[in-house]
Design a protein that fits this description.
51% helix; two-stranded parallel ribbon; 9% strand; single chain; three-stranded mixed β-sheet; mainly alpha
């Protein structure tokens, strides 16, 4: 539900512009497609957000089912204790202090916070030289000085729908090096290029096994 609310509140679409395109361009034209009007970055983010709700593997299925069953079992035990606790069950409601467990839980929370914060920080710094990377994976990255191939990029979008000069129409920007740099980690899943020049498929891109849209 949170993901759906986020998508509904984030997605913006210029319906007036779409109505003009439908009125001007005949059926079958590329300009009548909604994907041309919509923001490609928002489309990809929403697509990945909705995809996260799907169960894509056997491991995800058993993990989600197991978590739900565990939650139901704990809820059942709590309801049973509230409705009619027995003498044997009462002590379990207020367990004795266990310093080892408390210490372990505290250290786990601290390490989790540090890991998440450092993953966000290092991934952001690694992808900072690449504004074309609109969606990235957050993981702890070992930063190397002046390296352009360590960004864990998931989505690369480089779009120019309205070139300003005739030269830009005839000789679009060559993005071969940029694609190779962002594909170096093997995380790329989506690439969208419009009015860009890609003469060859970089070898780094061939190693991206989870490519979905190209």
């Amino acid at each position: 539900m949170i993901v759906l609310i986020y998508c509904l509140s984030t997605f913006t679409f210029d319906r007036a512009k779409m109505a003009i395109n439908l009125a001007v361009f005949p059926p079958g034209k590329f300009d009548r497609m909604t994907s041309v009007i919509a923001n490609p970055v928002e489309i990809d983010i929403i697509h990945k957000s909705l995809k996260s709700l799907r169960i894509m593997s056997t491991m995800e299925f058993f993990t989600r089912v197991g978590v739900n069953l565990l939650f139901c079992f704990r809820l059942y035990r709590i309801v049973g204790l509230v409705q009619g606790p027995t003498e044997h069950q009462r002590p379990s409601v207020y367990p004795k202090r266990n310093r080892a467990s408390v210490t372990f839980f505290f250290l786990f929370v601290v390490l989790l916070i540090v890991g998440v914060k450092e993953s966000i920080r290092t991934s952001t710094l690694a992808c900072q030289p690449h504004p074309e990377c609109v969606v990235k994976a957050y993981r702890w990255t070992t930063l190397e000085s002046d390296s352009l191939t360590q960004c864990p990029c998931l989505t690369l979008i480089d779009v120019e729908v309205a070139p300003k000069t005739y030269a830009e129409w005839i000789q679009p920007k060559n993005v071969t090096d940029k694609v190779a740099q962002l594909a170096a980690t093997g995380d790329l899943q989506t690439i969208q290029l419009i009015n860009r020049y890609l003469p060859v498929i970089p070898e780094e891109l061939r190693r991206c096994r989870r490519m979905i849209h190209l």
